[in-house]
Amino acid sequence: MNKLKNILGTLAPTLGAAIGGPIGGQAGQILSSVLGVPNNPKSIEKAVSNMTSEQMIELKKAEKDFELQMKELEVDVFELEVQDKQDARGKFSKDWTARIMGIATLGGFLGYIFLVTIQPPEQNSEALINLVLGYLGGLASAVISFYFGASNTPDK
């Protein structure tokens, strides 16, 4: 689903934002009809990956129609996505499981950097180090964004 949202985020940002939210079913229906595939994430993802230029044009038209329909209904798709993320923070920021996983992720990231730094350079595989650091860096960034994101405010 994330891969689909990422692809759609560049081609049709409004549909991409809607696909994982409360109006995702409607967005999926639009995508499946434009692409001529069944309305399920795997079929849509495969079709989006292999789109023709004609389908891209149709997708853009469908997105404009979707935006107009959402405007008529006074639905802000991007606001729904933000609310979804804030809801997750509200539910899980105080949960010890999330805290322990966050601490373990950050600890692993910092520990790996420390270990790579103290080892002699000839013992390190540069490709492996880059791969692991990139992955751990992404996880650490997600943890920090979750706990210290701009929309996360302390409870009063």
Note the topology.
Elements: H1 2-11, H2 13-18, H3 24-35, H4 41-49, H5 53-72, H6 77-92, H7 96-118, H8 126-148
Helix pairs in contact: 1-4, 3-4, 3-5, 7-8
Core attributes:
single chain; 76% helix; 156 residues; mainly alpha
Tell me what the structure shows.
- The protein has 8 helices and no strands.
- Residues about 150-155 have low confidence and may be disordered.
- The longest helix is centred in the C-terminal third of the chain and has 23 residues, at about 95-120.
- With about 160 residues, the protein is mostly helical.
The shape is flat
- The percent range for strand residues is under 5%
Give the low-pLDDT segments: 151-156
> Could you state the order of secondary-structure elements as H and E?
HHHHHHHH
Cα-to-Cα separation, first versus last residue: 35 Å
Summarize it:
The protein has helices at 2-11, 13-18, 24-35, 41-49, 53-72, 77-92, 96-118, 126-148. With 156 residues, it is mainly α.
